[in-house]
């Protein structure tokens, strides 16, 4: 592809400055909406949370310039950003910050800051202490050790039940905004996948590989169509039954990234993260897909996945390519996708009803006021 390096550089820059600071934006919005619910100065709370979270993510280098912990700033730190923003909102609720009527009359931003000074000082101290704690954890490799142990735990599961349970844990942690066991390692980091590949190349057969039920053969090949929670099926379900413009707008912008297993837009835009309405289908689709795939492998309706698949391959095609082009794997994948859509449909309709109820309630309150 002509100019591939330059195009990749531009795309990476855009990604880094959008999804790469998702947790920072989450901290800002969580503080803003929390204080707004208590009729406090939401603008000052959001700005304070923004700076406070930057303090936590600051990484001292001993050189000139500024460096940040991009892991905490990006999607992997989303839960931390939300919790920090909510905590900042509670601080503004109790310690400082003018109410909305005073904030509306105050024209000067410095007046806002002086009124909220106690809360700003508290958040600043918490940010500095948080930054010191993160530096301390990195110095003694605590975080990297946890990530390594979690990844190793996922790669050691070779039985159907244990693999499905770890897949459920990974999906649940994804719903919480964290990285689970199967989200922290790739094909090359999975010893069982390498062993399967070597056996397949040696025996020229996929039916004799030693590990048939692993994170690679079940979860990555069938348990995450369109990303965690099989969001490709959710996208299809939304396009079938959704009527609210916000949800439809997000869905119409999502097909291309979701098709290539990047579901960040839907996780944040619907939203799916921490949304109890979608927790059940988010978990069930992954479980059903892995169970159906395991059953098909057990009955020898299709071989297990043994070959590596390029990053970004559409979810439904992962098993087809990973088995060297077995159409039975493609058919099983399409069946799983159909079942996933059927699972999501009633929950999308339930979400539509909840949104409609909230809108009617808000309209009634506006009429009374």
Automatic annotation (TrEMBL):
<feature type="transmembrane region" description="Helical">
    <location>
        <begin position="253"/>
        <end position="274"/>
    </location>
</feature>
<dbReference type="GO" id="GO:1902815">
    <property type="term" value="P:N,N'-diacetylchitobiose import"/>
</dbReference>
<keyword id="KW-0812">Transmembrane</keyword>
<dbReference type="Pfam" id="PF02378">
    <property type="entry name" value="PTS_EIIC"/>
</dbReference>
<dbReference type="InterPro" id="IPR004501">
    <property type="entry name" value="PTS_EIIC_3"/>
</dbReference>
<keyword id="KW-0813">Transport</keyword>
<feature type="transmembrane region" description="Helical">
    <location>
        <begin position="280"/>
        <end position="299"/>
    </location>
</feature>
<dbReference type="GO" id="GO:0005886">
    <property type="term" value="C:plasma membrane"/>
</dbReference>
<feature type="transmembrane region" description="Helical">
    <location>
        <begin position="158"/>
        <end position="178"/>
    </location>
</feature>
<feature type="transmembrane region" description="Helical">
    <location>
        <begin position="112"/>
        <end position="137"/>
    </location>
</feature>
<feature type="transmembrane region" description="Helical">
    <location>
        <begin position="218"/>
        <end position="241"/>
    </location>
</feature>
<dbReference type="InterPro" id="IPR051088">
    <property type="entry name" value="PTS_Sugar-EIIC/EIIB"/>
</dbReference>
<dbReference type="GO" id="GO:0008982">
    <property type="term" value="F:protein-N(PI)-phosphohistidine-sugar phosphotransferase activity"/>
</dbReference>
<feature type="transmembrane region" description="Helical">
    <location>
        <begin position="70"/>
        <end position="92"/>
    </location>
</feature>
<dbReference type="GO" id="GO:0009401">
    <property type="term" value="P:phosphoenolpyruvate-dependent sugar phosphotransferase system"/>
</dbReference>
<dbReference type="InterPro" id="IPR003352">
    <property type="entry name" value="PTS_EIIC"/>
</dbReference>
<keyword id="KW-0762">Sugar transport</keyword>
<protein>
    <submittedName>
        <fullName>Pts system, cellobiose-specific iic component</fullName>
    </submittedName>
</protein>
<feature type="transmembrane region" description="Helical">
    <location>
        <begin position="311"/>
        <end position="344"/>
    </location>
</feature>
<keyword id="KW-0472">Membrane</keyword>
<keyword id="KW-1003">Cell membrane</keyword>
<feature type="domain" description="PTS EIIC type-3">
    <location>
        <begin position="1"/>
        <end position="347"/>
    </location>
</feature>
<keyword id="KW-1133">Transmembrane helix</keyword>
């Amino acid at each position: 592809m002509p100019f591939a390096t330059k195009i990749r550089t531009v795309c990476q820059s855009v990604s880094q400055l959008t999804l790469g600071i998702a947790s920072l934006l989450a901290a800002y919005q969580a503080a803003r909406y929390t204080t707004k619910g208590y009729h406090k100065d939401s603008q000052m709370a959001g700005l304070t949370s923004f700076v406070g979270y930057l303090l936590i993510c600051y990484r001292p280098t001993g050189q000139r310039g500024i460096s940040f912990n991009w892991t905490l700033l990006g999607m992997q730190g989303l839960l931390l950003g939300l919790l920090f923003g909510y905590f900042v909102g509670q601080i503004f609720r109790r310690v400082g910050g003018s109410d909305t009527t005073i904030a509306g009359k105050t024209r000067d931003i410095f007046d806002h800051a002086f009124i909220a000074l106690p809360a700003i000082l508290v958040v600043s101290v918490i940010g500095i202490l948080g930054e010191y704690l993160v530096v301390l954890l990195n110095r003694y490799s605590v975080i990297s050790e946890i990530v390594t142990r979690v990844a190793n735990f996922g790669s050691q599961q070779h039985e159907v039940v244990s693999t499905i349970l770890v897949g459920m844990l990974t999906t649940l942690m994804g719903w919480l905004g964290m990285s689970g066991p199967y989200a922290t390692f790739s094909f090359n980091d999975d010893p069982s996948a390498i062993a399967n590949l070597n056996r397949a190349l040696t025996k020229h057969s996929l039916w004799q590989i030693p590990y048939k039920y692993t994170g690679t053969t079940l979860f990555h090949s069938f348990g995450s169509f369109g990303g965690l929670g099989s969001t490709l099926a959710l996208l299809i379900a939304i396009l079938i039954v959704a009527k609210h413009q916000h949800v439809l707008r997000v869905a119409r912008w999502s097909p291309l990234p979701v098709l290539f297993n990047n579901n960040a837009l839907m996780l944040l835009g619907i939203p799916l993260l921490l949304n109890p309405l979608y927790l059940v289908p988010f978990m069930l689709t992954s479980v059903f897909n892995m169970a159906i795939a395991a059953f098909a492998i057990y009955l020898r309706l299709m071989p297990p996945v043994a070959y590596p698949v390029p990053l970004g391959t559409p979810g439904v095609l992962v098993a087809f390519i990973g088995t060297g082009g077995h159409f039975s794997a493609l058919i099983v994948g399409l069946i799983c996708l159909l079942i996933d859509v059927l699972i999501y449909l009633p929950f999308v309709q339930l979400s539509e009803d909840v949104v409609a109820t909230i809108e009617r309630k808000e309209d009634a309150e506006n009429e009374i006021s």
